[in-house]
Every structure is written in C-alpha cells, then in structure tokens.
Amino acid sequence: MESIARLRYLQASPQKVRLVADLIRGRDVEEASTLLQLSTKAAARPLAKLLRSAVANAENRDAAVDVGQLYVKEIFVDGGPTLKRLRPQPMGRAFRILKRQSHVTIKLDSRGAAAEPS
Description:
This protein is α+β, with helices and mostly antiparallel strands. It has helices spanning 14-24, 29-38, 44-61, 111-115, and strands at residues 3-10, 70-79, 83-88, 94-99, 102-110. The protein has a 3-stranded antiparallel β-sheet with strand order 1-5-2. The chain has a two-stranded antiparallel ribbon with strand order 3-4. Strand 3 and strand 4 form a beta hairpin. It is elongated.
C-alpha cells in the first residue's frame, strides 16, 4: 500500500534539498530516519518531519500496516516560487537576492506489496 506526504514551500533551494533526498531514496523507513537524524544538513530536519508524516499517513490508511516493511519508494524535489529581494550596493545600485523555495513529495510503500500482483 502506497502512502504519500507533501511538503510545500520549504524555504530552502531545491538543489540543497535534493542532496539530502538522494540519501534516503530506496531505503527502509527506519534507516532513512536514522540517516536524517545524523545528517548535518539543514534540510534534514524538515525531511525527517515529512517522513514521519508519511508513516503516519500509512498507519492512518491501514491500521494493519507494518512500519518495519515500509521503504521510501520515491522522493522528489521540485522548485517552488522564488522570493525576490533587493540588497543595497554602493553608488546607489541594488543587487537582487533570490530566496528559493522547494516542494518535496515522498511516497512510501511496503516491501511485501512490491512482490504481490495488483
């Protein structure tokens, strides 16, 4: 059984979030959670929270789901809207600062469900 969780408008650039997302793709939920807790990247904390949310969604959809059998089937990071800010520079100039945002989607599935025909 597949469960999905989405994190929208994360205040971090997609390039930086993808570095952390690549660490947990295809791994078991427990192993992915441990990796995110030990990671020093700033994007690891919101992704850990998103992973917990996806596990809770799976438990909510099916009470008989075994959390030990869940793995990260798919995780992808899309770009969100960019906030444009101006920073004053010498001689009356202004340089643009782009504050990038991300949309993250995570899909969990059960290892046993992958072998069963649907």
